[in-house]
């Protein structure tokens, strides 16, 4: 069957049949709006991310399943950065009329696979035809107790600046894709990032973080966001940046440029009081995640970059900006 024969409502039906409702969903797909039962005492955290063909993804590079997983992952990453437990999501899609049903099915399979992995329920959305490319917009909802929500604004002078995982991989993966490479670790980090939901929730619920953000725009840009909202500066030791072997091999000429400004790694960048770093390291170890201290929060408003040896490092680019 083709998308045209299935039609808008046939497609929505096809999507709805894949959803397993949860007790918190009083009304899911099918009515004019979904009705949800929040966990008493919690705040609802809500976030939205749009993925546009030609801007955020290239259909020559990605398979539909990975695109589906990534569309949800980038939203779950924002919830993770707040320390929120992800609960539900809405999916709005604009599909070019020429798109195959096979592609849509693959895309939905990717979305549903990631939804099941992270225990989130699809509760609604919107479906329309696009006269341009494929457009995907997901809105995700999560919950957390008010006092445990991790904001960008809580970093204090003397806190350590820390990271989960490794950085620069996704940007190096994009460069590799542009050169014709189609698989491998770096490409996987670009096309199929895994949001650090368990880590974000655990760090927040253990009361360890003073501020947290997910690395979507690059370490330098995202640390700058924390500094601006916290009214502080930071000193970043480039020698402490966690880099994968694959990244080091691909970026041997300048190992810092992409790690600082590349973005899309969806690791967590967080600040903790000095005395709590061992506890954070232990906690991340139980999740099989690397923990690195990359700097310190200082007075002022600038992010200083210190290369190994103690000299100042001047980056070419300070972060990703859609209009920059
Ligand atoms: P309306 O015209 O009242 O906005 P729609 O016909 O757009 O309603 O949607 C009907 C139902 O299907 C709604 O519950 C809506 O949330 C759901 N829905 C539409 N598109 C999607 C989608 N892509 N994914 C999940 N649910 C969807
Ligand atoms: Mg609608």
Give an overview of the whole structure.
The chain is of the alpha+beta class. It is built from ten helices and twelve strands. It has a six-stranded mixed β-sheet with strand order 8-10-7-11-9-12, with helices on both faces. Helix 3 links the parallel strand 4 and strand 5 (121-130). It starts with a helix and ends in an 18-residue tail after the last strand. Adenosine-5'-diphosphate binds at residues 12, 15, 29-32, 91, 93, 122, 124-127.
Write the layout of secondary structure elements.
Layout: H1 3-16, E1 25-27, E2 35-36, E3 43-52, H2 64-81, E4 85-96, H3 101-118, E5 121-130, E6 135-144, E7 160-164, H4 169-178, H5 185-191, H6 197-205, E8 209-214, H7 219-230, E9 233-237, H8 245-250, H9 257-261, E10 268-272, H10 277-286, E11 291-298, E12 303-306
Parallel strand pairs: 4-5, 9-12
Antiparallel strand pairs: 1-2, 3-6, 4-6, 7-10, 7-11, 8-10, 9-11
Helix pairs in contact: 2-3, 2-6, 4-5
The structure holds adenosine-5'-diphosphate and magnesium ion (MG).
Adenosine-5'-diphosphate is lined by residues 12, 15, 29-32, 91, 93, 122, 124-127.
């Amino acid at each position: 069957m083709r998308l045209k024969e299935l039609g808008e409502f046939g497609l929505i039906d096809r999507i709805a049949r894949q959803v397993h409702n949860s007790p918190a969903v009083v009304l899911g797909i099918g009515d004019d709006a979904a009705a949800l039962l929040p966990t008493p005492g919690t705040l609802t955290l809500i976030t939205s991310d749009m993925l546009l063909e030609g801007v955020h993804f290239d259909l020559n590079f990605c398979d539909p399943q990975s695109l589906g997983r990534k569309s949800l992952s980038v939203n779950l990453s924002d919830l993770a950065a707040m320390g929120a437990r992800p609960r539900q999501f809405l999916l709005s899609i604009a599909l070019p009329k020429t798109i195959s049903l096979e592609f849509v099915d693959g895309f939905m399979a990717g979305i549903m696979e990631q939804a099941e992995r992270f225990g989130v329920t699809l509760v609604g959305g919107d479906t329309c035809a696009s006269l341009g490319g494929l457009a995907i917009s997901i809105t995700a909802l999560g919950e957390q107790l008010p006092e445990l929500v991790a904001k960008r604004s809580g970093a204090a002078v003397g806190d350590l600046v820390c990271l989960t995982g490794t950085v620069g991989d996704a940007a190096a993966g994009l460069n590799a894709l542009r050169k014709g490479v189609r698989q491998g670790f770096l490409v996987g980090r670009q096309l199929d990032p895994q949001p650090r939901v368990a880590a974000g929730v655990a760090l927040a619920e253990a009361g360890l973080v003073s501020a947290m953000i997910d690395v979507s725009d690059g370490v330098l840009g995202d640390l700058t966001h924390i500094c601006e909202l916290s009214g502080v500066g930071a000193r970043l030791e480039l020698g402490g940046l966690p880099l994968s072997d694959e990244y080091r091999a691909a970026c041997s000429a300048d190992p810092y440029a992409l790690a600082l400004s590349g973005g899309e790694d969806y690791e967590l960048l967080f600040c903790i009081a000095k005395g709590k770093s061992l506890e954070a390291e232990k906690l991340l170890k139980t999740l099989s995640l690397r923990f690195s201290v990359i700097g310190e929060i200082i007075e002022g408003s600038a992010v200083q970059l210190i290369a190994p040896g103690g000299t100042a490092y001047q980056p070419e680019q300070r972060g990703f900006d859609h209009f920059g």
